[in-house]
Specification:
- The chain has 371 residues and is mainly alpha-helical.
- Helix content is 67%, strand content 6%.
- α14 packs antiparallel against α15.
- The longest helix is centred in the middle third of the chain and has 32 residues.
Length: 371
Amino acid sequence: MFSRVGTLIIKELIQFRRDWVLLTFILLAPALQLVLMAQAIARGVNEQPTAVLDLDRSALSRRLIVALDNSETLRIKYYLRDTDEMAEMLDQGVIRLAVIIPAGFAAGLDGGRFPQHVQVIADGSSSVGASLSMASVVEVVNRFSADLIAGYGLVVPEFVDFRTDIRFNPTLDFRDYSLPAQLGFIIYQVTLAVAALGLARERELGTLEQLMVTPLRQSELTLGKGLPAMVIGGVNFGIMWVISLVVFHVPMHGSLALLTALTLLFVITVVSWGLVISAVSRTQQQAILFVFILAMVEITLSGFIVPAENMPPLLRAVSNLAPLRHYLVIIRGIMLKGAGITELWPHALALAGLSLVMGTIAARMVSRRLE
């Protein structure tokens, strides 16, 4: 059995080596995708283009503007003349945030009229950018107010000594949070595509009948098609994990052995999905189309875009069937938090169950197609 399966695996690897376009896609495209994504999000949501409408034009209002511009999240790029200009810039997407300082702002503070209001208008089409920009404005205004209180000699009782402690990602680096998720999705994408093309390619080239008349059993044929995809998925994981650590300095606080073992479990589940797609597809084009559709559904349910906890109850329940959701929790937990199997066992158990179920379905689907 092992010699027959080994021969089929060698045949698959030779076929991959001869198809240099597919080989380039498998080995270089994922690494390039990871690098491009990392560069694209390197600055996170910093330096959001901001405009100011200063109707007060006082030394105090200019001081507030300088304080806003000194924050990492905001960058004051435009000084507006009126609200019409502000509305036009927001509509065109030129700015993400507009700050309006009303007339009489400084005079009101000098006269002891508290509080004086500052209006902030954000472009909510980018919810993450808008929320972080608004939070940055609140932080700047709070510091500005505290300085004014001290400057005016007001006494404010300090009931609470408020101190913050950020764990797992102390610098709040967006790249450290997103790169492990991108690594997981790229592994999913490439492994699924390679597994889905296996039988579909044989069927399209007319060589499937030749394989069927060989001494290979149906289970051996399924194993021989699945193992190369698992190897390719594992190699891609190793390459991109090294790039993440060496090039982009993503922390690795947990066990590499545990991450490798759970990645293998995840890859087995994805390969099973790919074999099901390969069994039902008549051509490679159909297989890639199915891969694209499944990947879009998977990324939606995985928590990659929207946290699974924020989904409606029905979608949240369905998302438990998405292996990528469990893997994202695992890879972020191990790399960023140093989590062990004690914390991650529910997700590891879910991946084991999904791999068993999908492996059984894949074996039956391939057997039916070969009969």
